[in-house]
Amino acid sequence: MQEILSKVHVGERIKNLRLGHNLSQAAIANILNISRSNYSQIELGNQFPTFDTLHLIARYYSKSYEWILHGELNDSENYKAVNKFESLIINLEETLIGFKKTIENLEQQLVEIRTGKLKE
Questions:
Q1: How much is the pLDDT for 15?
Q2: Which of 8, 27, 90, 116 could cysteine-pair with 45, CB 3.0–4.6 Å?
Q3: Distance (Å, rounded) from C-alpha 100 to C-alpha 30?
């Protein structure tokens, strides 16, 4: 069963990320384009970050929303995340191969156009 979302725990995780990167509250608030006092309230657990702020924090620290909101993922969630990541890599590799073939075909057609040997 998933724990109830705690503003305090979310704030602690965000604070630990900031401290782990040796950033001041003012510096990260500037990066997130929010006031330092607003950022401070998030770290203190007095308020949740907005979706936009959560998104920027996740991107900046290369963390998932799930980790920021809930902490460590269990083995099942880790397995799903790894499989999703591996699936994405395979999809990108296949797309890159298709893109490479398309570029090669375009290059060949360009050569044929330049030499007047384009097959109709």
A1: 95
A2: 8
A3: 41
Percent of the chain whose pLDDT exceeds 70: 85
Who contacts 45 (Cβ-Cβ below 8 Å, separation ≥6)?
6, 7, 8, 9, 10, 11, 12
Q: What is the pTM of this model?
A: 0.58
Residue 13: is it exposed, middle or buried by C-beta count within 10 angstroms (0-12/13-18/19+)?
A: buried
Q: Are 74 and 82 in contact (CB under 8 A)?
A: no
What are 74's two structure tokens?
Answer: 């269990």
The pLDDT assigned to 2 comes to 47
